[in-house]
Design brief:
The chain is mainly alpha-helical. The chain contains 5 helices and no strands.
Length: about 80
């Protein structure tokens, strides 16, 4: 059973979302429904396939929890421009 939902969103976001929906040949309502379903589904990982591009850039390397990205980048730039 479908029920009406009213949302208040930024006009530019709505326009971009409508363009996206038209390009995908889907209604904006169905896209929002699918998104909300993915957020609330217990098995959301089994419903989505990882794209080949994402698989291709995955390294399997874990990033340490205490990594200081700003310091690493700063050190990289200092070394690069010596």
């Amino acid at each position: 059973m479908d029920t009406k939902l009213t949302l208040k969103l930024n006009q530019r976001i709505i326009e971009k979302a409508k363009e996206y929906a038209a390009n995908k040949k889907m209604s904006l309502s169905r896209i929002v429904e699918a998104y909300l379903h993915s957020l609330t589904s217990e098995n959301d990982t089994s419903e989505f396939e990882i794209s080949p591009f994402v698989k291709s850039i995955s390294t399997g390397t874990e990033i340490p929890a205490n990594l200081d990205c700003k310091k690493e980048y700063s050190d990289y730039l200092i070394e690069k421009y010596k």
